[in-house]
Design brief:
Layout (H helix, E strand, L loop, with lengths): L2 H24 L13 E4 L4 H5 L7 H8 L4 E2 L6 E3 L2 E4 L6 E3 L1 E6 L2 E7 L10 H24 L4
Antiparallel strand pairs: 1-4, 2-3, 3-6, 4-5, 6-7
Family: Belongs to the BamE family.
InterPro entries: BamE, BamE-like, BamE_dom
Subunit structure: Part of the Bam complex.
């Protein structure tokens, strides 16, 4: 085999490799591309139902049963428990919520924090579809009211 034929085969192989690499790097944009961005969830998922269980005078064990173990307990303030939550989806806006409870003399005194969802994490897509369908139903009802003939 002469040098010209070897050079042409090598050139053809390099061209095909460069073409494949270009195709793969062109797929980086959008939801289907590379690299895969894993969703990151940190903290405690608390719902409105969990918060509704809280009552003044509860013991720490009762609060732990209602809300779960706290993510943060401060060694300088052991009477305060914090329940932060952070979710960074692979694509989209991050979600961040905070919730804190305070104990006085070993019993629950008060609690405060962000508005908590009324669904579990595995129900997020169903809850989003419900919100979208409710919004579209409301828009449809509003357009019917606007187009209704006056008598």
């Amino acid at each position: 085999m002469n040098n010209t034929a070897l050079f042409l085969r090598l050139r053809k192989g390099l061209f095909i490799s460069a073409l494949a690499l270009t195709a793969l790097t062109g797929c980086q944009s959008g939801k289907w591309g590379f690299p895969y961005i894993a969703p990151v969830q940190q903290g405690n998922w608390i719902t409105e139902e969990n918060v509704a269980l809280l009552q003044k005078g509860m013991t720490p064990d009762q609060v732990r049963y209602a809300l779960g173990s706290p993510t943060l307990t401060d060694i300088f303030r052991p009477d305060r428990w914090d329940y932060p939550y952070y979710y960074q989806p692979g694509y989209g806006e991050p979600v961040s919520r905070n919730f804190s409870v305070w104990f006085v003399n070993g019993v629950l005194d008060r609690w405060e924090g962000d508005q908590q969802p009324n669904f579990q994490p595995y129900e997020q897509k169903a809850a989003a579809r419900t919100v979208e369908s409710t919004a579209s139903t409301a828009e449809a009802a509003a357009s019917q009211v606007e187009t209704a003939p006056l008598e």
